[in-house]
Design brief:
The protein has about 300 residues and is of the alpha/beta class. Helix content is about 40%, strand content about 20%. The strands form four sheets. Strands 6-7-8-9-10 form a five-stranded mixed sheet, with helices on both faces. Strands 11-12-13-14-15 form a five-stranded mixed sheet, covered by helices on one side. It is elongated, with a radius of gyration of 22 Å.
């Protein structure tokens, strides 16, 4: 960590330090417990992160604001970033919650600040960044338990504008509970994919769903001759039937499926969903056949592959 050259102490930055700096740069701050999760990837010593962060503070790379850790100008410049200016001290808690999302997902994350800069957007946006998955940017939105009705409408309006402008074709919304999910509604969906999921189980579900093993398992639930569908309401089809996968509660597919049934189309649809979703989708689509997947199945399939 520290080299001694002719009596001069030289502090050496290591790979985990850079990872921590980039992590903090994405949200603005983090807690000691969150930093521990980064350092313990390469160290079994549960106190290592505490001592390391103390050294980083002493050498001007980190600041401690109450229970939160922030970058300094020195560490921000080291990774080619500009230091976050947190004007409202009360926002640190919300930023730390976002840090938990990023750690739980374990996926590449682009900060909201980077996205606003890339697409020349003003600061008054509701997305909190984007997960990068299968070369797609899934804009991230969160709906806490105390979300106000006006906030739902503002997010829907933003999603519409970003979709029409070609900026956001894919998005994922994590809601605090089923009540909040229901309050958000399903109208005015313009994205190609818009997932509405509960937190925290939705994070693992989102992460596991796209793995090759999961996709192979879902394909096994259909006839071998099923092919990818070119329709908006289905993922796969055979000459006799459509197959729509709603495991991630895709509001875009649900909206298209609503239109399909309103138009009175006759080719039958099979919905593939989790056992916990059967009650909802049976009520919404009584005309459809339903194939269920045990909720634990997706995690069993990916055990040891994505860290679940």
């Amino acid at each position: 960590m520290i080299k001694i050259t002719k009596g001069v102490f030289i502090f050496k930055i290591i790979e985990n330090d850079i990872e921590l700096f980039k992590f903090i740069a994405a949200t603005g701050c983090c807690t000691l417990a969150q930093a521990q999760r980064i350092y313990q990837k390469n160290s079994e010593n549960k106190w290592y992160h505490y001592k390391r962060i103390q050294r980083l503070r002493e050498n001007g790379y980190l600041l401690k604001k109450g229970s939160y850790i922030e970058l300094t100008k020195k560490s921000a410049e080291l990774i080619g970033e500009t230091k976050y200016r947190i004007r409202n001290p009360g926002s640190r808690e919300a930023r730390a919650e976002l840090s938990d999302f990023i750690l739980d997902a374990g996926l590449e994350f682009i900060s909201g600040r980077q996205l606003r800069s890339e697409y020349n957007l003003n600061r008054l946006t509701f997305f909190q960044g984007a997960f990068v998955h299968n070369d797609k940017k899934y804009f991230l939105y969160r709906l806490p338990e105390d979300t106000k009705p006006t906030h739902y409408g503002q997010i829907r309006s933003e999603l519409k504008i970003l979709a029409i402008s070609g900026i956001c074709e894919y998005a994922v919304i994590f809601a605090a509970n089923p009540k909040v999910m229901a309050a958000f509604g399903t109208e005015q969906v313009h994205q190609k994919e818009l997932y509405l999921l509960p937190y925290t189980t939705g994070i693992k579900l989102f992460k596991n769903f796209f793995s090759p093993d999961t996709q192979s398992y879902i394909k096994s639930l259909m006839p071998a001759w099923a092919v990818e569908s070119q329709t908006r309401h289905a993922h796969y089809e055979t000459p006799e039937r459509y197959y729509t996968v709603l495991v991630l509660n895709d509001l875009a597919r649900r909206t298209a499926l609503d239109v399909y049934y309103v138009l009175g189309q006759e080719k039958p649809v099979t919905i593939i969903c989790l056992e916990s979703q059967v009650k909802l989708f049976s009520k919404l689509y009584p005309q459809a056949e339903i194939i269920t997947i045990p909720d634990v199945k997706l995690f069993e399939i990916n055990k040891g592959v994505v860290g679940c």
